[in-house]
Design brief:
Nucleotidyltransferase, domain 5; binds zinc ion; five-stranded mixed sheet; binds 5'-O-[(R)-(carboxyoxy)(hydroxy)phosphoryl]adenosine; alpha/beta
Length: 349
């Protein structure tokens, strides 16, 4: 029986461990963020990230168990992010999970980071299946039909930059630092979102694909031609830029929900923390008679609670990983509506 699942996450710049009971109850959720280190460089430095994971991983796991008031022996299974992510970073979490599984003789499961972002919603909500899920993070923007706790069908993804990347690159161009989403969100609150017009990427009902490199480029050209006049102007630029990204995400997500006649939408990943996507999303939900769910902000950004939650449901399905599983940097998923086929690339063990 799987009751207590230890989750371990180290795919990018957060070292995280969490314990979840019965796939529902969050007993602990520890996240050691490296943001202050990477912000000096304007983005994540992979080699630095893996070294920092190495330093933090064991204290973070120990803290997660202590907060949950459990010992290693009490754990029924260990779920760990296997990919996608930075290989050097992933390997730290994976090696730790394997060592624990081997020495404690506990079941091990490698899980997909993106599917786990979606699973975070089950910790706080009862969402009936099927539902449409948008995952918008720093590296990915994917749309899924979710038919069960472990059944994810990819409908579309971004053709180029991810939504979070568009926020981060814009913030860099505007001199706002890393990560950009939080800063742009903050400044946008005092800005006029109708002041400037940035293009709505691939704004057509014919395709669910996302694309954010065009809007980023239009901002770069805008900044070449125009000076940021003052603080208010900066706020207006941020608000107008954010509006295009958010509208694009919501248009495509709700178009998909309507086409597939699915009345529930989940929005997750770091960009789901955005205050405008939450505000505008509520309006889209009402207009379309669709129920909208978001995990809490701390469960939208990278964490291990989501890894433990997906792990619980997959363990329950009878899934198990061998001790020789490798990390993968990307998961090439062929989009076939209603079916899917995977081929893993960049496998390292
Ligand atoms: O899911 P996440 O924590 O990590 C990845 O798996 O990538 O997402 C991080 C991304 C970053 O690009 C960050 O700028 C963005 O989420 N983000 C936001 C906000 N908070 C974080 N974007 C817009 N508005 C926010 N409030
Ligand atoms: Zn993530």
């Amino acid at each position: 029986m799987y009751k207590y699942i230890l989750g371990i996450e180290s795919s990018c710049d957060e070292t995280a461990a969490a314990v979840v009971e019965d796939g529902k109850k969050l007993l602990s959720n520890i996240v050691a963020s490296q943001i202050s280190t990477h912000s000096k460089y304007g983005g994540v430095v992979p080699e630095v990230a893996s070294r920092m994971h190495l330093e933090s991983i064991l204290p973070v796991i120990e803290e997660a168990l202590a907060k949950a008031d459990l010992n290693f022996e009490d754990i029924d299974g260990i779920a760990v992010t296997q990919g996608p992510g930075l290989i050097g970073s992933l390997l730290v979490g994976l090696a730790s999970a394997k060592s624990l599984a081997f020495s404690l003789d506990k079941p091990l499961l490698g899980v997909n980071h993106l599917e786990a972002h979606i699973s975070a919603v089950h910790l706080e909500n009862k969402v009936d299946f099927p539902f449409i899920a948008l995952i918008a993070s720093g590296g990915h923007t994917n749309l899924y039909i979710v038919r069960g706790y472990t059944e994810f069908e990819l409908i579309s993804k971004t053709r180029d930059d991810a939504a979070g990347e568009a926020f981060d690159k814009a913030a860099k161009a505007l001199g706002l630092g890393y990560p950009g989403g939080v800063m742009i969100d903050k400044l946008s609150k005092s800005g006029d979102r109708n002041k400037y017009k940035f293009p709505l990427p691939l704004n057509t009902k014919k395709s669910y694909d996302f694309s954010f490199s065009g809007i980023k480029t239009s901002l770069v050209y805008f900044l070449k031609k125009n000076e940021v006049k003052n603080e208010n102007d900066l706020n207006d630029i941020c608000a107008s830029y954010q509006e295009s990204i958010v509208r694009s995400l919501l248009n495509k997500t709700f178009n998909a929900a309507n086409e597939y006649h699915i009345e529930r939408v989940v929005i997750c990943g770091g960009v789901a923390c955005n205050s405008r996507i939450r505000e505008l999303g509520a309006g889209f939900g009402k207009e379309n008679d669709i129920k909208l769910f978001y995990p809490s902000p701390s469960l939208c950004t990278d964490n291990a609670a989501m890894i433990a939650t997906l792990g619980y449901y997959r363990f329950r399905d009878g899934d198990l990983s061998q001790l020789n599983i490798g990390a993968y940097s990307t998961l090439k998923t062929k989009i076939v509506r209603g079916q899917k086929s995977f081929s893993k690339t960049g496998q390292h063990s």
